[in-house]
């Protein structure tokens, strides 16, 4: 029975102390599968009814490309279809009228390897434009001819990969900045890393806004943070009249007890939750359960022996 007691003491000590581990977070990068590079990936624009607005984007063919690239440009509506923000580009509604207001300076071209070109566009805002958010995507599609048959039949194969840059616009006027944080939760028990803190927000207004997310985690008996983004909170643009679900993650040691805190901000509302988080793999949980069962059996047998 001394072995069982030692196992229990070892498990409790291991969970309480945790393991000091600070992961190195990589800078975010944007990678496109297409040969073209198009950007910036987003533009935020403030508009007024009756205004004409000018801006530009760029398109380039990477210098390591081995061929010239043909492309076409076009504009589509932009929206999201669910709380995970799966993008949709073919649904017109009150928030995608801007797709009809945008005129591109050019709609096709050819780029040599290493060549970069600015693409200008004009937004002609109608005098009766509704106040609030307007969203569109300027798409660049690689239409490079990859070859034709050698018998001169005119058959060819072309790539149909498109990349897009989103235009987030707000038209000045009677706008509503309304929203609510529906859920903000951190699990108390996880089997494996990473820790995932869950949140759900709802934007019930008619303009987009940035939701901010801060996740901080410390060992139980230390103030040295394992992970934190307090200085540079993660942000996500939340579209009007939508709900958005997010999981903030933190890589933790495989065993331990930790203090975790998540803060979510939407418009003027702030929600903060703090919890103790136990990280315990299944094999260790099995040992704990086995030790507890053996301890109970030992206590029962000991009680029976006393009665005898």
Structural description of this entry:
The chain folds into two domains: 2-27 and 177-284, Immunoglobulin-like (Sandwich); 37-171, Sandwich (Immunoglobulin-like). Helix content is 14%, strand content 46%. The strands form six sheets. Strands 15, 17, 18, 19, 21 and 22 form a six-stranded mixed sheet that branches. It has helices at residues 2-17, 282-307; strands spanning 37-39, 42-47, 52-60, 69-77, 79-80, 87-88, 102-104, 108-111, 116-124, 132-142, 145-148, 156-158, 161-171, 179-185, 189-190, 195-203, 209-219, 227-228, 234-238, 242-250, 256-266, 269-279. The protein is mainly beta and 308 residues long. The longest helix is centred in the last third of the chain and has 26 residues, at 282-307.
Name given to the CATH homologous superfamily of the largest domain: Immunoglobulins
Mean pLDDT: 83
Structural class: mainly beta
Q: Secondary-structure element order, as H and E?
A: HEEEEEEEEEEEEEEEEEEEEEEH
Apparent shape: elongated
Indicate the low-confidence ranges by residue numbers.
Answer: 1-34, 146-159
| Number of domains as seen in the coordinates | 2
Binned strand content: over 45%
**DSSP helical segment count:** 2
Number of strands: 22
Instruction: Specify the CATH architecture of the largest domain.
Output: Sandwich
At the first level of CATH, what is the class of the largest domain?
Mainly Beta
Kindly report the CATH topology of the largest domain.
Immunoglobulin-like
Q: Please give the share of residues in helix.
A: 10-25%
Largest sheet: 6 strands, mixed
Cα end-to-end separation: 21 Å
Please compute the radius of gyration using only Cα atoms.
28 Å
């Amino acid at each position: 029975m001394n072995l069982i007691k030692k196992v229990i003491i070892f498990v409790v000590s291991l969970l309480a102390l945790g393991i000091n581990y600070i992961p190195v977070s990589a800078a975010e990068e944007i990678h496109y599968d297409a040969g073209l590079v198009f950007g910036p990936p987003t533009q935020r624009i403030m508009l007024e009814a009756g205004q004409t607005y000018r801006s530009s984007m760029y398109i380039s063919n990477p210098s390591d490309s081995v061929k010239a690239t043909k492309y076409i440009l076009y504009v589509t509506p932009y929206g999201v279809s669910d709380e995970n923000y799966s993008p949709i580009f073919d649904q017109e509604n009150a928030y995608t009228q801007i797709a009809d207001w945008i005129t591109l300076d050019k709609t096709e071209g050819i780029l040599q390897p290493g060549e970069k070109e600015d693409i200008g566009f004009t937004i002609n805002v109608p005098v009766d434009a509704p106040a609030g958010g307007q969203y569109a995507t300027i798409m660049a599609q690689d239409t490079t001819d990859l070859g034709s048959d050698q018998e001169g039949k005119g058959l060819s194969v072309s790539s149909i990969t498109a990349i897009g840059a989103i235009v987030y616009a707000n038209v000045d006027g009677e706008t509503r900045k309304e929203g609510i944080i529906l859920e903000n939760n951190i699990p108390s028990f996880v089997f494996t890393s990473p820790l995932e803190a869950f949140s759900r927000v709802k934007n019930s207004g008619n303009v987009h806004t940035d939701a901010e997310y801060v996740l901080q985690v410390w060992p139980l008996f230390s103030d040295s943070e394992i992970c934190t983004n307090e200085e540079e909170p993660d942000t996500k643009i939340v579209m009007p009249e939508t709900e958005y679900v997010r999981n903030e993650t933190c890589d933790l040691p495989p065993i331990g007890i930790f203090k975790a805190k998540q803060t979510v901000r939407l418009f003027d509302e702030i929600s903060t939750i703090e919890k103790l988080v136990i990280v315990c793999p299944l094999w260790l949980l099995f040992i704990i359960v086995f030790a507890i069962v053996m301890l109970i059996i030992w206590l029962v047998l000991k009680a029976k022996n006393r009665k005898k």
